[in-house]
Structure formats: structure tokens, C-alpha cells
Design goal:
This protein is α/β, with parallel strands linked by helices. The chain is built from 13 helices and 12 strands. The longest helix has 23 residues. The chain is globular.
Amino acid sequence: MKDEVKEMFVPPPYPYEQLNEFRVAAESLPGGAVDLSIGTPCDPVPEIVSKAFVSDSSIESARPYPASVGSDDFLKAVSEWLNRSLQVEIPQTSIGACIGTKEIVTGIPSLLKLRTPAKDTVLYPAVSYPSYLMGAQLASCRSVAVPVDDNWRIDLSGIDEADIERALCLWVNSPGNPAGAIENLAMTAEWGRANEVTVISDECYVEFTWDSDPKSILQETKKGVIAVHSLSKRSNLAGMRVGFYAGDEEIVGYLREVRKHQGFMLPGPAQMAGIAALSDQTHVEIQKKLYFERLSKLIEIFRSLGIQAVMPKGSFYLWIETPDVDEWGLVEMLAKNIGMVVTPGEFFGDQGKGHIRVAAVAADDRIELLAQRAGV
């Protein structure tokens, strides 16, 4: 019997490159484009972080190979932050450093598949960050999109029993990207326990909630769950690529050991910056206030255009329905008329069609320029 011939993997177009023509159109307006398509920080790196980055100890840390799992000081800073900000006690042995969270999101299915080769399926919300799907594809896993409800929260009742049997993991994202929904993490953790499926909770926006305290799946349980966190959003450190994962001691221990062999090491100076960032909450509160004010101003701008927009439960995105015009048409209109570049909802899955996502990541003067163009 001949071996089955598998097709070569061909990477799909990178989604945001499809917006280049709209960036060109927006840039042609006086004052140029205001790009609200990608959630990249626009505000300064906090002073406490920049001082740490140029310190003698930070420079010295660039010389030796850093510990793959994270230095003792970095792991201690993470553990203390989890206790202080989320009221959960996680030992350093149940924490690992990662080079930003996108690499762990796209890489973890491959490692879980090696650990449990009989499983081959990644479950993820049908409207979500595209990298959950890409991680499954890069691991040669089945990807199963789980429906979301009217509030954009994952609907666990919509998962087929056959898919549960084959599931390596279930992804949740809370607050969610793109819609800002806050998941019922207690129910999700219980579902994972009952079905013996590892739940991975992407919590990179955890400190940006607008009418509730930060919620982590680690507050519900440490068994069978992993929480993934990033300093990119809270501390304007997207270019530093500082992230970490924490949770189930056995799973984290496995990931830490395998990642040593892969050579994944968060650079020493980045770890020093991360330690400083995690030690200070003042800059996060300042950043949170800025995002809330920008979201509020953007809502006002859209309403002046006759487009309904509402404040999300969390994160710094507006998720806007486009009932009277196709989403690509609205993307084009916003670019040409007021120079705003936004993301079509289909980038986040088929169930996201008919929406746009708007990231409140431009400086105040740039958002004011949008307001002036819109006649606000």
C-alpha cells in the first residue's frame, strides 16, 4: 500500500497586507492615514521600563544565554504580579517565559500533539484572533471553530462529541479580540475538566476591562488549564516581545522542557524590562484611561457618521456591525472619506462577516483629526 501523499502547506496571504490599498487611499488625504487596523501600541514605553532597559544590569544580561524558562527574577516578578493583580498563587515552577505570546499561540498545538499523539484537533472560537487557526494548521491538526453566542462568547454546547474526543486543546480569549467579550471562565474550566481537554486562556487584555475586575481562568483552577499573558498591550512593549504562560504544573513543566530544546529564549534585556513593567501598576492605569477615552471618542465619531458603535466589555477594540453596507465597502468608505484604516470582520472568521474591527491605538491628536474630518 502506497504512502498517502499530502499536499505541501502553502501559507495564506497575511491578512493585514490585504489592507494596503486602503492605506494608500487614506494616506492621500491631508494629514495622512490614521491606521486603526492593527492593535499595535502608539504610546511611549513607560519610564520605569526604559530606565531598566538601559541599566548596567540589563546591558550585562545581554551577554550570556538567558534561561529558556525565564530567569529566577523574571519568574518571581510574574508570580508576584499574578498574586497582586489577579489574586492567584502560582509557583515559579508553573510559569514559563515566551517570546511574545503569538509564538506560543501558534506553537503550542505542535507540542501538545507530540505529548498526546492520539489527539489531533484544536478547538477555538469561531470569531477570534486568526493565530489560533494558524497554530492548528502549522501543527497539521484539525481545526474546529466553535460557534459564539449573541454576546460573542464561546458556545460550548456547540462542540460535537466526536471533536471533543479528538481535542488537544480549547482556546478561549477573554477579554476577546475582536469583540471584547468577557468569557464565563468558571464554566469553561469546568467543561475542560469534565471532558479532559486542556483549556488555554489567552488573557493579553486582562487589565483592560471597563465595568468589572480582571478575570483569569487561574482564579477558577490551576488543573488542566494554561493562561497566556503579554506585556505588549499593558506596557506598550510589543517590540520587546515579553510574554509568559502559567497554570497546570505538569503541562507547564512539559512545555518548559521541550522549549529548552527548541532554543526559545526571551532575551536577557527583555526580561529585565518585563520585571520592571510587572512591578508597576501606575502606568497600566494611565494606559487604561487613555484607551477608554479613545474608545469613547471613536464611538462619537461613528455615531456622527450614522453608524452605531458601543463600548466593549473589555479590550481596546470597537466591533461594529455593518447592516446596510458590506464590510469591505465600509472599509473603503472610511479610508477614502476620513482616512481611517480598519479591519474587515472576515479576518476573524466567517461568523465575523458583516462587521469591522476598529483598534483605539492612535494618539489623541490623530483621533482628533478623524473627528474633524467627520465633522464632530
